[in-house]
Amino acid sequence: LPVPVEEYTPAIQDAQPQIAPDKLRFGPQALYRVRQAEASGVLILDTGLQVSLLGIDITDPQGFTAYAQRYLRGKQVFLKYDRPERSVENASRVRAYVYLKNKIFVNAYLLKAGLARPSGEPHRLAQRFAELWREHQGAQHG
């Protein structure tokens, strides 16, 4: 007996969290201003967008907060994403590489300064981050 084919559309479609478009900037206006930083390593930008620093885990929350207060708060930054399908954490938070307007790479600097360690998550610069971490460890013990 042939089985009848039924059309079925699930009520809930596979979906990615969506970021409100007014939180994002593209093109030459892609600079954001850092409004504040959380000890966990999340930056809150002037549009309300929250950014987790891709590829690193903060190991010194107090040190990170002091660094962010002095060098990031009120400064202009731009974001680079690794894999778009994994860049959105939730409706208001993305994971990204963060650069100051003068091109200082914040994620890498925090590793070199010993304020963070590689997160172990897969991303384009994972090997470079591991090398920076090893260099920092070697400098500490050397």
Molecular structure report:
The protein is an alpha+beta fold. The chain has one domain (24-141): OB fold (Dihydrolipoamide Acetyltransferase, E2P) (Beta Barrel). The chain is built from 4 helices and 8 strands; from the N terminus they run ββββαβαββαβα. It has a 5-stranded mixed barrel with strand order 1-2-3-7-5. A two-stranded antiparallel sheet has the order 4-8. β2 (42-45) and β3 (50-53) form a beta hairpin. The radius of gyration is 19 Å and the shape is globular. The protein starts with 31 loop residues before the first strand and ends with a helix.
Summarize the structure.
The chain has helices at residues 61-72, 84-87, 106-112, 126-141, and strands at 32-37, 42-45, 50-53, 56-58, 76-80, 88-90, 93-100, 116-118. With 142 residues, the chain is α+β, with helices and mostly antiparallel strands.
Core attributes:
142 residues, OB fold (Dihydrolipoamide Acetyltransferase, E2P), 5-stranded mixed β-barrel, globular, alpha+beta
